[in-house]
Amino acid sequence: MKSYIPIIGLEIHVELNTKSKMFCQCEANYFNLEPNSNICPVCLGLPGALPVPNKKAIYYAQIIGKALGCKLTTQSKFDRKHYFYPDLPKGYQISQYDEPLAINGLSEISNKKYRITRVHLEEDTGKLIHKENKSLIDFNRSGVPLVEIVTEPDFHSSEEVKTFLEMLHLIIQQYLRVSNANMEQGSMRLEPNISLTNNINRLPDYKIELKNINSFRYVKKAIDYEIERQKKLLNENIKISFETRGYDENKNITFSQRVKEEAKDYRYFPEPDIPVMTFDTDYLNSIKIPELPNEKLKYLTNKYKIRESDAFLLIKSLKKVDFFENISKKITNYCKNNKIEFDYITYQKIVNFIVNSKEQEIESSLVFEKKIIDFLFPKKQNIGITQQIIKNVLNKNKKAVEDYNNGKENVLMYIIGQVLRELKTKQNVNEIKSLILNNLKQLQ
Amino acid sequence: MNLLNKTLIELIKLIKTKEISSKEIFEYFIKRIKKYNKNLNSFITINENFIANNREFLYGLPISLKDNICTKNIRTTASSNVLKNFISPYNATIVEKILNSGGIILGKNNMDAWAHGSSTETSDFGPTKNPWDKTRSPGGSSGGCTAAVASYLCPAAIGTETAGSIRQPASWSGTVGMKPTYGRVSRYGIIAMGSSLDCPGPITSSVEDSALLLNIIGGIDKYDATSISPTPSNYLLEINNKKTFNIGIPEEYFENVDKEIIKNIEKAIQVLKSLGHKFTKIKLLHPKYAISVYTIIQRAEVSSNLSRYDGIRFANDRTFFGKEAKKRIMLGTYALSQGYYDKYYKKAQTVRSLIISDFNKVFKKVDLILAPTTPTTAFKLGEFEKYPFFGELMDILNEPSSIAGLPSISIPIGLTKSNLPIGMQIIGNYLNEESILNCANFFQKETNFFDIKKTLLKQYPD
User: Fold this and answer.
1) Structurally, how many domains does chain B consist of?
2) Which residues of B touch A41 (CB under 8 A)?
3) Hey, is B280 helix, strand or coil?
4) Cβ A269–B304 below 8 Å, yes or no?
5) Which of A270, A286, A302 is the last residue before a domain boundary?
6) Alpha-carbon gap, residue B101 to B92, rounded angstroms
7) pLDDT tens readout for residues B367-394
8) Inter-chain CB proximity B224 and A52 less than 8 Å
């Protein structure tokens, strides 16, 4: 058995959340619409119709490029990519071939660096719906702006891929806000290509492309399956050739869709309906991107001295980050005003509390703030209330108290449970336990 | 009232002075179409439905359109059986502009199917005949438009040109044909042929009418990313303010040109000299290079543009394509295939840049370029089948300027001994339509195009 190193590259398609489609005025948001109700001569490919590019979409693609450390190009153009399929109304897709909007990026995720080959803009296709013996086409999605991100083959495990994709998803959806990146609706589609080598310095002479996967979990599973499948073939000295494969999530297998001999010749040529785009360097430099997760992480750990692992959980929700910063400021002030000694541990406690809460809870921020303050600084009367609740519980459960006094110590767990249920708010279990024990002692 | 041979400008005067109504004019042309179209076959569809429209600037005058210009409610076929019953759900931008300027669509003119050709014979609706000699072709692909304007079945028409498709039939039919700068007139709603070349333009009896229509259809369009932003001048004003120009004569454009044509051009040059214009001999790249460039780029774009006609969303399926379209699709597909792209398409684009810079150089020295429109006068019907690249040969003198996106006008300058019209073209610099129109207008004022139209219309009385 030889040992193999997986070589994995990625192609990711992201639908942008612009108001209108890539080349016409129809809505870019096509979900839950009556089929073929969001269409016009342009996205339907009618005779004489012409594409006019959406400036916002171009800008969004450039923002994504910048966030992935790419160089934004000063000259870029659209090209026609030809193939026949019923959901492609013009018989070609307007895409970008040799002059994409962004190239040569470097993206650092979890302390690993991945090279980004290119970021380009294209249009989505319609959707085929197969019903009984008929095939129907819904063109509502036709022409929705789609960004394609291509990486170099810099990934060596399914875990690395998953981590990268989750971070990319986070950046696009929450930090750049250029896409809804809704995985179930297919607004982010993942296509890993995988091959194996036994020499890291030599790329294999083949690759297997997996098409259109729309969940991070499935990407990981599909890659793992593919690595094992290829390992087996290579160990049997079977030569693997270029192939496109699909992934069956129910059976957890990949299956062949197209081999190289059937590879398509897309007959790319410059889209004559759209002039070449030129951007001056000053303009490209003026495109600003917000603070990204990596920087946010560094900033949070430096400023608040919280654990990196917790900060990592926190940055997965910008809402939580904002809430954390706000409440931390308030609490620092509260301590100052009430002459309470402040400690960095407090930040750590706040982070823990926020990270373990749901995002919806944070939305009613005033209530949530009070919860945190109560948690950090339990007031005297709070202890009074707790005491009252314990007394009530013990009164109601005379039998349990009796049992406890008779040596059945595991009844204590039941009593703690009852008290916690009455308290409704989160409390330190050990504190409650000692309070109950005190009460029980008094009753003896 | 005798309306025969009246220009748009003349008809507008009659409407304004209430000597005649636009409805009467409309009915007059419908009557003429019914009388003569059976023989000429210049109209595919006639729109007999008169809807009053008395807005500026056309005050309800009828205009006919080449049948690759999309019209709501009137079928648009591109003269192909693929689109035999196709009705566009929207109007082309230029149709909207014409309607908003008081025009009424009189009908749709025959053309080479998909505009593939230079004789109007590849039409699936039968060839259009040349009104001067019905055994001959009117030229093409806008042959239906030029035949209709020449025989006065309509006062003016809008054609389209990819390389020669306005100027060449204008020349063969004895009308004025104006091909504006690429991007000057919106292509939105024009069935695409060679997208980087396509250009709609007016086909008229007079230069003034051409200026009037260019005023109406020109200008930037938010639905066409290749349309050009500088607002066009008021051409109708510009052309009446007499100017003199330095006009270049490219020797290369006179090679292999019919002797009778050259003789008439020399005569026309004398007229222009008498009007104060100066002439300079110039050198341009030989037009033969443009043939190769044009053939490759146009075929490539055709193969791409026709891929939407799959019969799924509208119209008939691919089996309805004619021979010429299939030939062009095959050639274009080949030229764009992997391994051939660099050899053909990319190389053609490189030569295209050379042709553009060649013109740029020349326009530093001269204001206008003058040349024959075509190497010959109208061919007999059926001749085109003897030449595999018939169109390219007939359009050789139009291709360089089309490839460079330059404006040019073809005007009638006389007749051959066998009574066939001869055309001469004036090519201008990028966006300089007004100089072309100015020069051509004073030529017409001086000569009235040697009254050739009067000669023809004797055969087509009311």
Assistant:
1) 1
2) 88-90
3) strand
4) yes
5) A286
6) 14
7) 999 999 999 999 999 988 887 767 777 8
8) yes
